[in-house]
C-alpha cells in the first residue's frame, strides 16, 4: 500500500511509527463501538455500483453470494438482494449484524471472523469489499484457501486492496483505522495457487474513489 504525501498530511506517519500493532488488533472493537455511526454513513450506493454490476454480470441468474465484512447490510447486500441474489453476510460485529437483521431481513447473517470461516457451503460469488484490507498482510495470505473453500465451480471473487505491500493507519470516529496490503505480484500468485484466474485488476480506479480492485474467477478443474 503506497503512502503518499496526502496520507502523511492526514497523520498516517504517527500511526505507522507507533500505532500499527495496536491498530490492527482493534479493528473488530472499533466497528463494534461505532456500528451506528458506520451504518449512518453507508445507506446508499455510490461509485462502487459499477463494480458490483460487473461482479454480478459474471454470476449466474439468482446467484448465491458470500459477503465478507458485510457490516450493516446496506447498501451492498441490499442491492444484491434487489438484483435477485441470495446473500450470506459475515461480520465480526454483532451490533452491525443486529442492524442488518432489522433493515435487510431477507439475507442470512453470521457473526464470524472471516479469518477462521468454514460455513460448509460454496457460493457463486464471494465479495470482500473494503473489509479484506483491514487484515494484516499475513492474515491476508491465509485468506486465499478460505476463499477457495467457499467457492462453487466457476465462482467469482472480488476484493479491494492497497496498491503495494505495506500498512497504513487512517481514522474513523477519531480512532486509528488499520489497512494492510500485499504486493500485486503476491496477490496474483496467491490467486493462482488457489485456483483463481485474474479477470480484472484496476489500481486506484478514478471512477471508484481511487479504490484498487481485484476481480477473479475460480478456474475449472482439469
UniProtKB/TrEMBL annotation:
Instruction: Name the UniProt key words of this record, in alphabetical order.
Output: Methyltransferase, Transferase
UniProt record, GO biological process:
methylation
Signal peptide span per the entry? none
Domain Methyltransferase spans what residues?
65-152
Q: Name one GO molecular function term.
A: methyltransferase activity
Matching PANTHER family: METHYLTRANSFERASE (PTHR43464)
Per its record, how is this protein called by name? Answer: Methyltransferase domain-containing protein
Q: What is the lineage of its organism?
A: Bacteria, Pseudomonadati, Pseudomonadota, Alphaproteobacteria, Rhodobacterales
